[in-house]
Each structure stands twice: as structure tokens, then as C-alpha cells.
Amino acid sequence: MMRATIVREPIDTQPVLARIKQPEDGAAIVFEGVVRNNARGRQTLYLDYEAYEPMALQQMAQLAAQALEQYKVRDVAIVHRLGRLEIGETSVLIVVASAHRGAGYDASRWLIDTLKRTVPIWKKEYFVDGAVWADGEPFPEEITRAQGSPSPRVASK
Amino acid sequence: MMRATIVREPIDTQPVLARIKQPEDGAAIVFEGVVRNNARGRQTLYLDYEAYEPMALQQMAQLAAQALEQYKVRDVAIVHRLGRLEIGETSVLIVVASAHRGAGYDASRWLIDTLKRTVPIWKKEYFVDGAVWADGEPFPEEITRAQGSPSPRVASK
Amino acid sequence: MRVQVLFFGVLRDLVGRASETLELDEDATVADVLEHYQSRIPKIREMLPSLALSVNQHYSGPGAVLGNGDEVALLPPVSGGACR
Amino acid sequence: MRVQVLFFGVLRDLVGRASETLELDEDATVADVLEHYQSRIPKIREMLPSLALSVNQHYSGPGAVLGNGDEVALLPPVSGGACR
Questions:
Q1: CATH number, domain with residue A63
Q2: Which residues from C are below 8 Å from B35, CB to CB?
Q3: Which of A147, A157, B33, B109 is close enough to B92 for a disulfide, judged by CB 3.0 to 4.6 Å?
Q4: Residue A157 in this model has a pLDDT that exceeds 70
Q5: Which residues of A touch C82 (CB under 8 A)?
Q6: Does B102 lie at the interface with C, CB-CB under 8 angstroms?
Q7: What values do phi and psi take at B98, rounded to 5?
Q8: For residue range A80-95, what is the model confidence (pLDDT) as tens digits?
Q9: Which fold, C2-75?
């Protein structure tokens, strides 16, 4: 079973949660990111999510593997939806199963924080008076930028 | 709708989550406490949960109200199941809906941590070779003990 | 006066019942209830530092003065939820 | 040699298409690709400090040397998930 998936239909939490829970788990932590009806004080109509799909999937799978290793949780599932999403719909689902709840909460939070900064997915916000690409969160230090990050080849020119 | 409920049937997360999510929410965080197949190295068969029911319900409702106030989350639901629970079944469900995820995670974690120390519910663990009441977590400082906590009337004797 | 005393978890097993009615003097406190059960069941004495108490479903201390018809409960450390 | 260049989010709107094929000299780097688009679309220049890059679906820097058939992407800050 894949730990990372990208879908275009509504995300159904229950089967993902049911699939992931095992007899040795003591805690399951679910995070659902939900499309809000407002952004920076403006009323949102709906959102469009797009991804660099093969890279996003790879990044999500890598985050899942890293969470298992860093937080000693037993299993995780990450699902992101693409396409048009209405208010109240779930854009991202993260499920963590763990023997102990502390590790579960830590892993869940790290996964969503890191996903939001590193997985190549973008959203366009539609308002009554137009649409804009959402300001993304800045890439973390570890990811080299197109300009301004140290890079040997460019520096030696 | 009640924020705190005690049930004797299996807990179904999906309707609780669906009921609680609103258009102004950006995040929903679900915690499920699950019956594990082992406790302190022994293989568990099943558990029996019992409660001082009216007091447990009151305490849970009070925790819910406190979480809303302390963490500025929009809504919470706490469900605890009583009676016999099999391995893999959910004993407690905590759902938090919030505009921002940080507050949601903090509230969820505070709720389960505090519930486990203050809500009058007890579990008996059944093993192949007998049954024991689980060692509870010590009551927090704020709750006076039967002996050893300062208490004016007793001290003046 | 009479109060109703409730026992939970390991205490219920020790006392052998879930509740009983206790006859007390006027102005009796929760400490008097504890005194009664300590002398009847010595094992309860060593548990006291870990026990909590409630009167009419609210946490309370041993100094609380009781009234007729009050509901007192002796509460071992709680263990709701699931994992540690 | 030829590389495939992909554009996402606001960059796709700026460039006016999702991808195109670019003809480059041997030993060209990602920096050469950036150079090409900066001169064609000046607005990209001011965005550079916030952009990330990938080669064959892995994050990469401007110094990366390209080979024939490589897939290069210009990535604006990402905005998956939902709430802040």
C-alpha cells in the first residue's frame, strides 16, 4: 500500500484511517486541511490545486519515509487532492498511527509543516472579483534557490 | 450539539468530523485512542472501561469549554466509549476544528493529556492469565488528594 | 445524616460493592468517610496519597463538610483514553 | 542538446504555457535556462530569489549541468495544504 497518494476526487478519511490502524497501535492522529471560505479577509469561492505530479508524489513518499524514521511512528498515509475544491472540502489528509501519542502528534505536525514548504503543489484562489495564485511559503534553507543561494558552479564564473 | 459524549457502541469518527467542520475552518485534527494488543509486555485480550458517568461527562464538557477558550479553536468534540472494547477499537475520540492548524494541534494534545489525568474513567485490562485495573496516571497538582495535600480543616485537627 | 458513598475501579473490588449508604454525625467531613473505610479495609490507608475525592460529582478535598444526601466518591487514579 | 522546461503556478501564467523544449549548448547548466527566461520575460528576474529548481523531478541548484533530454522545472513557492 502506498504511503503517499494524489487524488482528484473527494478525500474519504475513514477508509484511510481504517486501513492504517493495526493492533499494536495505541493512537491514530488525523490531520485534514480544509478549504476555508476566506483568505486574507476576502471571501473565497473555490480553489484550484495543481501539482508537478510525479515530483510531488516522490516528495510526499520521501516525507512519509522520513517521518517513520525520525519519529518512530508505525505508519503514515498522506493524501493530497488536486483540481477544483469547494469550501469545506479536504485538500490534504495526513494519518499517523503510532504506539504512543506524543510521537504521533509530532510526526503529524512535522509532515504538514514540511509538505506545505517542499511539495510542489500550488493553489489558485478564486474570489468574486478575480483569481490569484496563493503566495506560497518560502522554500526551506535546504532547498537551493534560483538566485542567492551558494552554488559552486555559479560562484566560480 | 453536545461537545462531550459517552457512548457504549463503537465510535464512528466520520459523522463527528463531518458535523464539526464549518466553512471558516482551515484544519481539523482528529485523535483516536486505540486499544493496543499489549500492555507492559503482556498480550492484552480486551479491556473494560467504566466511568463515574455523570462526573466524567461534566469534566469532559468542562475540558471542551476550556480548550475553546485557551486555544482559540472554533469547536471541539470529545467522545469516550465505555464497556468491553476489543483490540483495535477506539476508546476515545477528540476532534478539533480550527482556522489555524497550530492551535488545533495544541488543543488536541492538551485535551487528551488532561482527559487522561482528570476524567473519572478507569480501565481493566484482561490478559490470558488474569485481569488488572490499569495503573492510572497520578492526578494533577490542582486536584486535592485524600491524604498529603494541604487542606485547612484536616490540618487544624 | 446519610450520605451515599461510591467506589470505582480497584476500590470497588476492595470494598466489594459499587456504593453504600453511610450514617454520619452532623458536620461530618469527607475525612470522616475516609476514616471509616480505612479502619474497615486497612489496605485503603496506603492508597490515600494517590486517591482523589468528589462530593456531588465535583473534585473535593478531605476537609469538605458534608450535608444530608450528599454523594461522595473515592476515586483511584484515572485511566481513560488508550495509549500512554 | 534539448531539454524540456516546465512552468508552474504564476510562472506558467507569465510564460503563457506549461512547458516548452529548449535548445542548449553542450555542458549548459540550469543557470543558462534561467538566463534565457529572464531575458525573455524580465519579470522573472525579480522572482529568482524565491524560486526553486528541479532537474528530472529532484530539487537542484542553478549550477547543475544538464544532459540531453533532461526535464527542468521552475518552481514558485509552493502552496499545497490548506490553512496557514
A1: 3.90.1170.40
A2: 82
A3: B33
A4: no
A5: 26-27
A6: no
A7: -155, 150
A8: 999 999 999 999 999 9
A9: Ubiquitin-like (UB roll) (3.10.20)
- CB within 8 Å: C48 and B148: yes
Q: What is the mean pLDDT of residues D50-66?
A: 97
B38 near A CB under 8 A: yes
What does the domain layout of chain C look like in residue ranges? 2-75
Mean pLDDT over D1-28 rounds to 96
What predicted TM-score, i.e. pTM, was given to this entire model? 0.91
Q: Is the interface score ipTM higher than 0.85? A: yes
How much is the average pLDDT of C56-82? 96
Q: Write out the three cell numbers for B117.
A: 489525568
Identify the closest residue of chain D to B102 by CA–CA distance: D84
Instruction: Judge: B28–A32 Cβ closer than 8 Å, yes or no.
Output: yes
- Give the model confidence (pLDDT) of D29-52 as tens digits: 999 999 999 999 999 999 999 999
Q: Which amino acid is at D51?
A: L
Contact call for residues C74 and C19 (beta carbons, < 8 A): no
Domain count, chain B: 1
Cβ pairs B/C, distance under 8 A:
132
Cα C71 from Cα C3, distance rounded (Å):
6
